[in-house]
Amino acid sequence: MATVETVKGPIDSGELGRTLVHEHVFVLGEEYRLNYDADWDEEQTVADAVRDLNDLKSAGIDTIFDPTVLGLGRYIPRIQKVAAQTELNIVVATGLYTYNDLPHQFEHRGPGLLFDQPEPLVEMFVKDIREGIADTGVRAAFLKCVIEEPGLTPGVERVMRAVGQASAETGAPITVHTNPHTRSGLVAQKVLAEEGVDLTKVVLGHSGDSDDIGYLMELADNGSLLGMDRFGLDVYLPTEQRVDTIVELVRRGYLDRLTLAHDASCYIDYFTPEERFEKQPNWNFRHIPDDVLPMLLEKGLSEDDIDTMLVTNPRRYVE
């Protein structure tokens, strides 16, 4: 057993229950919202999120890990409003989301830079984990970084090494947004290992976008968990292929390396709800409990297998 920080405070890891390891409550550009989104309704947006998460809880999911960090519009007071109105556990992260460059606030500050000083990103991440995010009292339970199609750019590498150093210092686990079609999960494993990270404490997000069994086995053999976490985003890989990939990995002995999620959100400002439904009608929190789990059972997995992916593996990740 271990203590896990949630938005409403610490709980025992045994209370996590069925867990989706990569979901978002809100994804938005806060600066854009403040300046240009005249239609924003804070009260209604929070109410809609409460409705969605309560619905997810009623579908048998007890916890979500929310890797919304700097760059994705993380604003903990808004998450607190939602958490106060749902029994579903929300576990939040620290880190920084970029495909290329760092925000200008960090451009000139750091080792060997104009203002030569210890890496401020590490200090920021560690503070979020040990003391809490801003003045909310909410402590991050895991770290998040990204390596996308542009690869290991100087900005991406700096964030990734800072995340690795913060993990090594605090013991907090890591989720990495990867692009499996560029095999970037292997790059992330190499860099994080160089910073002293235990690769068994790493979820390689969006691994489920690929059905390249060889690549996925290589990642898992290095110790990391595979984030089969974009169910409903059929534009990247249809649901049936995602299911078949999981079944094959289980057949080959990798059940203890698999986690599930949608990478969905209660609110995302990339498009309107109507546009989202038109393009990706299955991309919602109910897709896994309503559709994916029955498909996995039909294809030969057991209820114990499902619990390993939804309960045992996420719990081991945070313990």
Automatic annotation (TrEMBL):
Keyword Magnesium belongs to the record: no
Name the coiled-coil region(s): none
GO function term, MF aspect, one: hydrolase activity, acting on ester bonds
A Pfam match is PTE
Detail which positions bind Zn(2+) 1: H22, H24, K144, D263
Q: How is the cofactor bound?
A: Binds 2 divalent metal cations per subunit.
What cofactor does this protein call for? Answer: a divalent metal cation
Q: Which residues are involved in binding Zn(2+) 2?
A: K144, H177, H206
- Keywords from the named record: Hydrolase, Metal-binding
InterPro entries, from UniProt?
AryldialkylPase_Zn-BS, Metal_Hydrolase, Phosphotriesterase
Query: Which residues carry the post-translational modification N6-carboxylysine, per the record?
Result: K144
* Hydrolase found in the keyword field: yes
Gene3D superfamilies in the cross-refs: Metal-dependent hydrolases (3.20.20.140)
Q: Which family does it belong to?
A: Belongs to the metallo-dependent hydrolases superfamily. Phosphotriesterase family.
| Record's protein name | Phosphotriesterase
Q: Which organism is it from?
A: Aeromicrobium phragmitis
